[in-house]
Each structure stands twice: as structure tokens, then as C-alpha cells.
């Protein structure tokens, strides 16, 4: 019943910026945590960033100081501002939300960073 709609992926040159958005809709009691994960070809899915309902953030070491996660609680939307992109950031990025009863995943959006 919960749907996550992601947008903002695409092709960008190294050093450029991109902003991802994920809007949640459906029957959601209360979103506790929202976050982004990514999976590069041939690699395991890894944490990019998370943000709690109180605004506390956590980042993966590889993106810290370059990416910023934020949320708009009124819109049930989470954002990921990606700056100083590197080719190694190329991956499918997945949105994840956690409420009191369950967790949900988006279908992913591809980010490609060229050299």
C-alpha cells in the first residue's frame, strides 16, 4: 500500500551535482527513518545516508562531506543532495523508509558519473 516515487537520477560529469528525491505515499502511520542506499555493479548494497524523524543524520564514509540528506515531513519526502560527484558514485540509488510497523524500498534510480 505504500509507494515510494524516486526522481532525480541521471548522467552527470565528475565534479558535478545532482539531487535525488523520494516521495512516500499511502498508508503510513509515522515515518521514523528515511534513507538512501546504493548498489554499484558487482557490489553489495551499501548505506549512503539516513535521517530520523528528529533530524539526526548518518552518512557512509565514502560520501561524508559531499552528500547531504534532508527531509520534508509535511510532504513525506526525503532528498539527497550530491555534490562533487565522482565516477565511483555511479550506482543505482534506492530510497528506504521505516515506520513503526514496516520498512519499504523504492525501485531505484540510476546515477551515472562520467570522468
Descriptive overview:
It is globular, with a radius of gyration of 13 Å. The chain has strands spanning 3-7, 10-13, 18-25, 31-39, 46-52, 57-59, 67-72, 77-82, 91-99, 103-105, 109-114. With 115 residues, it is an all-beta fold. It contains no helices and eleven strands. The mean pLDDT is 94. 0% of the residues lie in helices and 57% in strands. Strands 2, 4, 5, 6, 9, 10 and 11 form a seven-stranded mixed beta sheet that branches. Strands 1-3-8-7 form a four-stranded antiparallel beta sheet, with no helix packed on it.
Short description:
This protein is mostly beta strands and 115 residues long.
List the helices and strands and how they pair.
Elements: E1 3-7, E2 10-13, E3 18-25, E4 31-39, E5 46-52, E6 57-59, E7 67-72, E8 77-82, E9 91-99, E10 103-105, E11 109-114
Parallel strand pairs: 2-11
Antiparallel strand pairs: 1-3, 3-8, 4-5, 4-9, 5-6, 7-8, 9-10, 9-11
Distinctive features:
four-stranded antiparallel β-sheet; 57% strand; globular
Shape: globular
- The number of helical elements comes to 0
Structural class: mainly beta
For the largest beta-sheet, the strand count, sense and barrel status come to: 7 strands, mixed
Rounded mean pLDDT score: 94
Poorly predicted ranges: none
Order of helices and strands: EEEEEEEEEEE
Level of helix content?
Answer: under 10%
- Give the amount of beta strand, in percent: over 45%
Give the radius of gyration: 13 Å
Distance between the termini: 40 Å
DSSP summary, beta strand count: 11
Amino acid at each position: 500500500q505504500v509507494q515510494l516515487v524516486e526522481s532525480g537520477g541521471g548522467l552527470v560529469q565528475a565534479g558535478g551535482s545532482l539531487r535525488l528525491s523520494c516521495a512516500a505515499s499511502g498508508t503510513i502511520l509515522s515515518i521514523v527513518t528515511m534513507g538512501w542506499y546504493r548498489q554499484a555493479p558487482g557490489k553489495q548494497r551499501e548505506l549512503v545516508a539516513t535521517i530520523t524523524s528528529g533530524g539526526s543524520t548518518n552518512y557512509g564514509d565514502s560520501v561524508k562531506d559531499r552528500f547531504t540528506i534532508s527531509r520534508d515531513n509535511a510532504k513525506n519526502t526525503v532528498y539527497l543532495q550530491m555534490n562533487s560527484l565522482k565516477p565511483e558514485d555511479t550506482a543505482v540509488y534506492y530510497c528506504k523508509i521505516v515506520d513503526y510497523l514496516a520498512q519499504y524500498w523504492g525501485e531505484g534510480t540510476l546515477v551515472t558519473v562520467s570522468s
